[in-house]
Amino acid sequence: MKPNEEEKRIFFLCFPRYFVTLQPIFRVKTMAKKIFVFLTFVVIIVLVVMALTKPEPWEHQAAVRELAMKVVSQEVASVQLPKEMPAEFAEQVTEKGLDMAMNAAGSFLQSNMQVEDYLVLSVGWVSYHGQTLPITVGTFGRVFVLADENDVRNALR
Predict the structure, then answer these.
(1) 155, 79, 148: which is closest to 112 by C-alpha?
(2) Residue 60 reports pLDDT greater than 70
(3) Long-range contact pairs involving 52-55 (C-beta distance under 8 Å, separation at least 24)
(4) Is pTM beyond 0.70 here?
(5) Which partner from 5, 7, 51, 156 sits 20 to 30 angstroms from 141, CA to CA?
(6) pLDDT tens digits, 15-31
């Protein structure tokens, strides 16, 4: 349906610069292109930052070891030692128990944990009871542990 002369005149009076050139249509396309280019640029910058700030493989093991130490400390603290045991000896037993547990956890991680390096992140995998499970994800300079304390507690038992 074509506009009549009266409608053209009203439109021209209200929007004089858009009447002949059809700028609104081209402006929408140009704005969409600008937004697309801007978002593409932002995504590329984020991917480059992710690639440059990936954590090292040892940082994955350190994060899992820290979680394991927290769980082992809680387990050792909950163990009731005999009351007739001297306090100094109980502290030594606790220290030795923590050292042995951390050595066991460290050797387990050395032999059963792999860190796969992808372009923008790294993933730590643990082989446990015939399964290979992701346990850590590293990006932006941080390592995020996917397992919680209960998972580690069950694995230690």
Answers:
(1) 155
(2) yes
(3) 53/139, 53/140, 53/141, 54/117, 54/120, 54/121, 54/122, 54/138, 54/139, 54/141, 55/122, 55/138, 55/139, 55/141, 55/142, 55/143
(4) no
(5) 156
(6) 555 545 444 544 556 77
- Burial class of residue 32, CB neighbours in 10 A (0-12, 13-18, 19+): exposed
Q: How far is CA 136 from CA 67, 73, 153, in A?
A: 11, 21, 17
CB 29 within 8 A of CB 36: no
First to last CA, the chain: 79
Query: Is the CB of residue 126 less than 8 Å from the CB of residue 112?
Result: yes
The amino acid at 44: I
Asked if 140 contacts 127 with a C-beta cutoff of 8 angstroms, the reply is no
Whether 112 contacts 127, CB under 8 Å? yes
How far apart CA 57 and CA 143 sit, in angstroms, is 10
Tokens 């446990």, residue? 128
